[in-house]
Structures are given as structure tokens and as C-alpha cells.
Amino acid sequence: MVVSLLPSNSTAFELALEEATDIASEIGPAIGAIHGLKYARPLNVTVAPWLVNEYGLGPISDFFDTIEDLIDEGRVWQRLRGTPQAITTSLSWIDYDDIDIQDQVRGRRRWHLYQIQMGELPGVDEIQRLTNAEYLAGLSDPARSFFWRGHFGYDVRGHVYGRSRWGRSIWGDSSGVRIAGGRVKWSHGRTHELDATAEAGVAADLGVDFADGDDVTWLGSLTWAAPGLTWGGVTDARVLKSWLMLQKSAHIGLYDVDGDPIGYARVVRAVQDITDYGDTEDTVVLAYDATIGFGVASGEVAYAAVVFGGVAQGVAPFKTWLDPDQIDFPDGEVRVGESPISFTFLETVRERIVINLTI
Prior knowledge:
It comes from Shinella sumterensis. This is Phage tail protein. The protein is built from eight helices and 18 strands. The protein is an alpha+beta fold.
């Protein structure tokens, strides 16, 4: 039934004109079909761009394979924007599924800063993934907040008087580096631990090939402080061997699949594993520990070994990472316990190599 909108005193001509120009019967079905059109699936391709614009989803459209997913998930995200849940939701689009948002500690002047424990390393597509993470967090967080640091595996915070320990903090800063063009600092780390055994003959090459009961003649490597021996000879070969090995300057060499050196990391700590003396009475296990800082090396690593006899050339003393042209081996390189290892250097990942060497 058509209801007239004309007043009750309308003339017959006006009523006839109204009826003649009424197109409700023609457009009515189309108007009815519009109802729920934006929720229909599959989505009408002529309507989709307008819905993306209506919901303000253009800035996140690159993170979805289909426009239906963009609209369905984007609408939910828009309602959450400005909350931690929005950050969690948006980072899940680039497969960060286990993040932990950490607000600034109470009492700090820059109270609006927050960090994210990312839950995993960025992977080989490091730069693109971290760029996307910074972008999505910036779209999702409150206007008064600022995402300034993401971390996983290596997290050393700036020192806070009365709230942090000197040995576990950095004066005036926190660990991490920024990628080109980014404002967020990234601090990732991973540890590679290897068990290796010295090859036959290496102990003799290094001058540590002793056994209990051996006679000892004067050697430049032996001092009055050397344990495990007396005037009568060697009384504890394992103690003596450990002591001699720990006096030697060592690097951990990293090599590509062809065996060519990528570089050498200075061993920052070498200790005897007192819980494991080795399989026989004259073998010991020594742990060689080296760290490679953010962005100082590149390439794909296939092998690692403990290397003796290296002398740094033309660089600052105690430089922790040496390129192949920055180290010399005057008496020849002694490569011990070469073992397979597989990883690719990343700009924001601090690598730690630990080799447990049985010799």
C-alpha cells in the first residue's frame, strides 16, 4: 500500500501527478537488497573499496590476502585501537603470536614509553618484519604512548638507581640497535652451544699432551704456578692440561659452507667444566664462550671451531670481532673441534657461541 505524502486538500491533478512520478515500485527491491550488503560473503567487488574507505582500513590493507579478511578483522581492530589488545591483534598479522607489552617502570619521567617482548627472533626477513612491527604498533597504540624498544633473547635494561644492579644493566641506555629509518630499538639474542672433540694430534701441537707420570723437562710454557706437576713429573695431567689451555689466547672461528673464514670472535670466557673431566683419565672439557655484537658480521655460517695462534692486526686491542684480514697467525692456525652449525647473521641479533671442547 502506497501512502500519500500530500496534504488532505490536494487537488486531483496533484494526486495524479504524485502517483505518476512514484518510482518506489521500481527501486524498492534494490533498496531492500542494500540491507546487509556489506556483510554478504562473497563481498560485492563494486562495494568493497567503499567499505574499506568507510572503515578507515586503507593503512592496513597490505597485511591481508583477501578484502573480506581485511574488513572482518579490520573492523574488530578499529574498535580496539588505543588499547594493548589492538597492538596484540595487529602484530598477530605478521605472526607475532606471543608478545608481552611492558609499560615503563613506575616513577620514570618518560612514563609514556613502552617495550614489547616479541616472543621470537625476527627471522631472515628481519628488516621488513621489524619495519612492519613498528608501523602496526604505531597505528594501534594510544596517541599518548610510544613504542620505543622490542626485545627477545637478550634484554639488558638501562641502570635505574636503587632499582637495578650494576652488573645487570647499562649506564644510561638499554641494549639494542635501530634499523635504518626506524625509531624503535631492537635487542635480540640467541645462543649456539656445541659439543666438540679435539682431533688427534692437536694436544701435541698445542703443547699440552701430558699424561700422569710423564717426566717433565723445562718448558717455556710451564711456570712455578703450574698445577698438577712436581719435580718428579706430572701428577695430575687433567689439571695441568686445563691450566695450560686456559693460558692460551683463543678465538672462535666461523666459516661458510666452503670452509672459508667469515670471521673470528674473541673468546671472552674460557673455563674448565669441573662436572665433566672427559672420557679418559687424561682428557678434560673446556667451555669456550664468545659473543658477536649487533650488526658487526654478515653471512651464512656453516662451521665453527676453537682457533689458537691468532694475533689481531691493525685494530683496537681486545676487539671482539675480527674480519679475516684483521687477524694473523704467525705460527700457523690451529683449528680445533670444527663442528657444523647453521645460522645467518642478522642486524639486530647478538650471537653467543659456546663450544664445549673435549681435549
